[in-house]
Structure formats: structure tokens, C-alpha cells
Design goal:
This protein is an alpha/beta fold. The chain is built from twelve helices and nine strands. Strands 5-4-3-2-1-9-8-7-6 form a nine-stranded parallel β-sheet, with helices on both faces. Strand 6, helix 8 and strand 7 form a beta-alpha-beta unit.
């Protein structure tokens, strides 16, 4: 199976480059902005975008992303609306798109129905941070059938057995948390060498690292070891301006300047 996410990481590795994965909250500050921002952020240097499906009880999200989700919901954003916004962007861009979504949304809609609708909208994969392992095999099979990636989260405190269990269920890439806790920008650069080494001992999949990444220096530090850097809160904060699309693109271009090569290949 080779989907768009696999192809992107293969091309990055083949050219000894790393990727940038910005996060957008679907429907923040509007669905129209989401559509326009996808194309603008992709053109500014993003390889893959995460689109958060708004949820009233965000999982591990800090105050910035949580507020953006509540604002999106208050403005009327729905799962169907986010899918429509993504479909409109997909018609104009071949950037990688993955949905960050709570397992409760997936199960409420129905796993088969959700995966089909997400794929039809143009998503290339899912990130389900709170997925119950009892449901993981079934969801992975549905993603396989649609040639979609499925990424779960590995915490820096995970033991070797947990790392092996999580990574075995992933397709496309593995999401490494650079630190425990909730999302949000931090001053210090993340230290992820040991966590990356532990994951690479268990899996050959690419690693995307996120949580607390907010500057080009952070991106540079992370992509010495990981295959991609994920940036969420710092980008969402800038989209609170009167020019959200332009602000997102300008910040993405700034962050992309920090992309580099890995200190240790995997």
C-alpha cells in the first residue's frame, strides 16, 4: 500500500529532507478560512497538514487549540462542514492531509462511515489520540482498505512494550509527543533523541514530533532526529488576526526555514 502520506515521506527521505506538519483547527475562524489556509500553508512550505475536527472536550489540547475548537463549534462547524472545506481545498492541492479526531467522534458516526467520508473528502489519514486499543485493529483495517494512514501517539515516558504496541498499529507515520502534558508553545527546544531511538528500535515508520514546537529553532532541533515537525498552538494563535490565511502562510514560511536533515537516519 502506498498512499499520499507514504509517498511524501519517501520523497523527503530520498532527498535527505525533513517535513513540516502545521495544524489547523477545522472551522477556525471559519470554514472558508480553513479551505483557503490549506492551500496557502501548503504553498508556504508544509508537506502535510493536520486538520483538527472540532470537539467540545479536546484531548490533550492546551488553551489555544481548545479555544479555537470552541470558537469553531460556536460558529457552527460540524464534521460534515469540515469535510466539505477539505474537499474544496483538495480540488486545488495535493498536499498531505490528515484528520486529528477524537475516537468518540469516529465511533459516534461509525468507524466504517467516518473513514469512508474522510477519504472521500480528500483526507489521506487519521490521527486518533485517544483510540482504545480494543478498536484499533478494526480501524486500522478500515484505513488499509482506503489506503489511509493511521497514527497514534507515543509519549516520551512510554516503556519499550508500550512503544511496540502503539507503533505496530500505526500506518504512514508515528506521532511522537516531545513532552508529556498538553499542547502549547514553549521556550526551550525539545529533547527527543532518546525517544526517537526507542521508536526506531521498534518500527521503520517515519516519526513526526509535536507539542511545544513554536520557532524555527525548535523545528531545527526536532528534525535533527525526527522526520517531521508538527506545529499547532503557535500557528493557531497567529490565526486570531484579521488576516488569518496570510498570517498562517507567513508563519509557516518562517518555520520552514528551520527544516534540516536528521542526525541519525532511520
Amino acid at each position: 500500500m502506498t498512499n499520499r502520506i507514504d509517498g511524501i515521506f519517501q520523497r523527503l527521505k530520498g532527498s535527505n529532507r525533513t517535513g513540516l506538519m502545521p495544524f489547523l483547527t477545522g472551522g477556525y475562524p471559519s470554514l472558508a478560512v480553513t479551505t483557503d489556509a490549506i492551500g496557502a500553508v501548503a504553498a508556504a512550505g508544509a508537506s502535510i497538514l493536520e486538520i483538527g475536527i472540532p470537539f467540545s472536550d479536546p484531548i490533550a489540547d492546551g488553551p489555544v487549540i481548545s479555544a479555537s475548537m470552541h470558537e469553531a463549534l460556536a460558529a457552527g462547524a460540524t464534521v460534515a462542514g469540515v469535510f466539505q472545506a477539505v474537499a474544496a481545498a483538495r480540488a486545488k492541492s495535493d498536499v498531505g492531509l490528515v484528520a486529528m479526531v477524537s475516537a468518540s467522534i469516529v465511533t459516534k458516526i461509525g468507524m466504517k462511515e467516518f473513514v469512508a467520508a474522510a477519504s472521500d473528502a480528500g483526507f489521506d489519514g487519521l490521527i486518533v489520540p485517544d483510540l482504545d486499543f480494543a478498536c484499533a485493529d478494526a480501524l486500522a483495517q478500515l484505513c488499509d482498505a482506503r489506503e489511509m494512514s493511521l497514527s497514534l501517539l507515543v509519549a516520551p515516558t512510554s516503556c519499550a512494550r508500550r512503544v511496540a504496541e502503539v507503533t505496530a498499529l500505526c500506518r504512514g507515520f508515528i506521532y511522537l509527543l516531545t513532552r508529556a502534558g498538553v499542547t502549547g508553545a514553549r521556550e526551550a527546544s525539545p529533547e527527543i533523541a532518546a525517544s526517537v531511538a526507542a521508536i526506531r528500535a521498534a518500527s521503520s515508520l517515519p516519526i513526526a514530533a509535536g507539542f511545544g514546537i513554536s520557532t524555527p529553532a525548535h523545528v531545527a532541533a526536532v528534525t535533527q532526529y525526527a522526520d517531521a515537525a508538527i506545529v499547532g498552538s503557535a500557528l493557531i494563535r497567529r490565526m486570531g488576526s484579521t488576516r488569518p490565511v496570510e498570517a498562517a502562510a507567513e508563519f509557516t514560511q518562517l518555520l520552514a526555514a528551520g527544516l534540516g536533515t536528521r542526525a541519525s537516519a532511520g
